[in-house]
Specification:
heterodimer, A: mainly beta, globular, B: mainly beta, 6-stranded mixed sheet, 5-stranded antiparallel sheet
Chain lengths: 116, 113
């Protein structure tokens, strides 16, 4: 199946710093990618839809100035958590939609963010 | 707004048992439904995808069914093994302008050796 990678797989940072997470579709082009957040023992919550060449669409309650999304190419979307705080600590998962395979979404392995 | 519910939230069975995980959704206007597996601290592994026009999909010991009109799907696992222990997530891809996956809260499965 199609492969989506995320980098880094885990990151620990100090409060107030910014962290960038990359999501890449390795063997297909993705006009649309998605960013999810998952707290312990909870399900995935959609944060935003990343659209290549245009602004991301954020879900209600997600601060767009805090979670900056850039989808500059058909294989790369980035999520930057700005001025991170301990409450931003979570598991962030991206997915990429493959329009050539019935819009199937392929998920990355996730990034564990810990803010001290 | 689409809502997805999974029952039970947790399930513990002895090895070798056949089991059924349930998923229900409120809006039947779906494009497809997927079942995923998630191991602790890991990402998602896609198990089965059922298109809205299909009624079931099979992969090895797994069988997923879809009844779109009633808003239900089941994941059947035959001859369960300890390696099947994980959280199983159901996700619905809504059609129309939303075109996004909505996840259920998952069923945490433990298969005891």
């Amino acid at each position: 199946g199609a492969v989506v990678s995320q980098h880094p797989s885990w990151v620990i940072c100090k409060s107030g710093t910014s962290v960038k997470i990359e999501c890449r579709s390795l063997d297909f082009q993705a006009t649309t990618m998605f960013w999810y957040r998952q707290f312990p023992k909870q399900s995935l919550m959609l944060m935003a839809t990343s659209n290549e060449g245009s602004k991301a669409t954020y879900e209600q309650g997600v601060e767009k100035d805090k979670f900056l999304i850039n989808h500059a190419s058909l294989t790369l979307s980035t999520l930057t958590v700005t001025s991170a705080h301990p409450e931003d600590s979570s598991f962030y998962i991206c997915s990429a939609r493959d329009e050539g395979r019935w819009d199937t979404q392929y998920f990355g392995p996730g990034t564990r963010l810990t803010v001290l | 707004k689409q809502e997805v519910t999974q029952i039970p939230a947790a399930l513990s069975v002895p090895e070798g048992e056949n089991l059924v995980l349930n998923c229900s959704f409120t809006d039947s206007a779906i494009y497809n439904l997927q079942w995923f597996r998630q191991d602790p601290g890991k990402g998602l592994t896609s198990l089965l995808l059922i298109q809205s026009s299909q009624r079931e999909q099979t992969s090895g010991r797994l069988n997923a069914s879809l009844d779109k009109s009633s808003g239900r799907s089941t994941l059947y696992i035959a001859a369960s093994q300890p390696g099947d222990s994980a959280t199983y997530l159901c996700a619905v891809f809504s059609s129309g302008s939303a075109r996004q996956l909505t996840f259920g809260s998952g069923t945490q499965l433990t298969v005891l050796p």
